[in-house]
Amino acid sequence: MKTLVTIIGAGPAGMLLSEILARQKIDSIVVERQSRDYVKSRIRAGVLEQTTVDVLRENGLADRLDSEGHVHDGMKIVWAGKESFFIDVKKHVDKQFVAYGQTSIQEDLFAAANRRDARIVFNAEDVKLHDVQSKKPSVSFFSNGERVSIETDFIAGCDGFHGVSRQAIPHDVLKEYEKVYPFGWLGILTERPPLPDIVYANHPRGFALASMRSPTLSRYYIQVPLDAQLVEWTDERFWEELRSRFPPEMARAIVEGPSIEKSIAPLRSYVAEPMSYGSLFLAGDSAHIVPPTGAKGLNLAVSDVFYLSRALTSFYKTGNEALLDEYSATALRRVWHSVRTSWYLTNLLHRFPTANQFDQKAQEYELEFLRSSASAQAALAEQYAGLPLEELK
Ligand code: FAS
Ligand code: PHB
Predict the structure, then answer these.
(1) Which secondary structure element, helix H or strand E, spans residue 7, and what is its range?
(2) Is 223 within 8 Å of 204 (Cβ atoms)?
(3) How far is CA 329 from CA 271, 292, 320, 332, 335, in A?
């Protein structure tokens, strides 16, 4: 098989890159380890930054998002049962964000791929990258019992944190930054009306989050210890614990229902540098992971793809490799801002098992400062809304 760009991974990063390149008449093949249904079934992100919505809309992918997405002006923070306060993103930075599930985005991306008869290989086994430093790299994999090879100009590593692409960068070239948090998130999805706002709660029993997917689909999370087992968490135990972490009147407003999805995700901050090596370019979770506290993971995957597709388009239209050479540095500037914001919010809103009384007091006064200072709220609003994408000079 031959193509211009071989994309490893059919998650949001891989499928969005495939779609944008196709609109620029640049051929690609997507190679995915799992089945289409498996990829579609994953329940993950839920909040889209304005820049993400803009990129999807510019590429004809926002019709359903515009009709079903839940637009928000800001989000609420409550702590230790005190009065909640609202971070008004719209007022401070004139931006909004949209609650629209990653699952829906994945469906929209696959529907667009079907309309253009995109080349996607599902259930690809033992995917390998070859000669990534050369101008003629290739990707091989097992499919239907035979090893298939794809000759390509470029490889886009969109295969997530546990993928193979990042491993193609030599250890003496790759620099990794990591912070693992001493807790995870237990999340559930239930077919019940959500609270009107996205609400983050810091409580002595731990962090909690109220979110949504639609007017009839709620998404909730609670911080759990690293050794928490899903089997220990019945729905009723979850609902009781969730309510205990919100102020009484907010807890009473939560509409309980049977979980249609329940999972525990560990929290880590991770960045791999550089995000490119020879003809290999990493985008999305293959290059970085953020704790979901800042709702940045999916949005970073989109900004990486925006920069990478712009660089590939420039190369194929003009032969100029400058944007490809600058891709890693450009993407990492936005990555690190989002990584820092997610780290800041995770430290602000979670209860750390190792925190001493001083740490706890300092955290409470950080929350008090945020509650009482318009400039502190404006600063958080700017970071939560997401930084603008860098325009070409
Ligand atoms: P993905 O991991 O989505 O996709 C990578 C794809 O590559 C997968 O389909 C995988 O099967 C495939 N792949 C892996 N190895 C391969 C190989 N060797 N060969 C071929 N294909 C291979 N973000 C938020 O903003 N908010 C959230 O609440 C949130 N919750 C999350 C919960 C969980 C449990 C997880 C894991 C992530 C969560 N995220 C959240 C982050 C998430 O949304 C990611 O940022 C987003 O999926 C990134 O998209 P991709 O980079 O495409 O990676
Ligand atoms: C979600 O709706 O899944 C969600 C919302 C906000 C976050 C993380 C996840 O910070």
Answers:
(1) strand 5-8
(2) no
(3) 13, 23, 17, 5, 10
Q: Give domain status of residue 235, yes or no.
A: no
Ligand 2 pocket check: which of 47, 212, 348 to mutate, most ligand atoms within 8 Å of Cβ? 47
Domain assignment present for 353: yes
The rounded mean pLDDT for the chain is 97
**267 CB near ligand 2 (under 6 Å):** no
Say what the pLDDT of residue 380 is.
97
Which residues participate in catalysis according to the annotation?
A: 72, 200, 292, 296, 384
Q: Give the containing element (helix H, strand E) for 329.
A: helix 322-349
CATH of the domain at 326: 3.50.50.60
Distance CA 58, CA 341 (A): 26
Residue 293: CB within 6 Å of ligand 2?
yes
Residues with CB under 6 A from ligand 1: 8-14, 31-34, 39, 44-46, 102, 124, 127, 158-160, 162-164, 265, 284-285, 292, 295-298, 301
Give CA torsion, residues 204, 230, 187, 65, to 10 deg: 170
Q: Please, which residues bridge with residue 264 across strands? A: 186
Residue 209 located in a structural domain: no
The model's confidence at residue 334, banded by pLDDT at 50, 70 and 90, is: very high
Q: Determine the number of helices (DSSP H) and then strands (DSSP E) in the chain.
A: 12, 20
- The reported pTM is 0.96
Euclidean distance between CA atoms 332 and 374, whole angstroms: 29
CA 165, 169, 174, 180 dihedral sign is positive
d(CA 74, CA 313): 35
As a whole number, mean pLDDT of residues 116-143 equals 97
Q: Which of 102, 186, 281, 289, when mutated, tests ligand 1's pocket best, judged by the most ligand atoms within 8 Å of its CB?
A: 102
Residue 130 lies in a domain: yes
What is the extent of the structural domain holding 332? Answer: 5-178+267-385
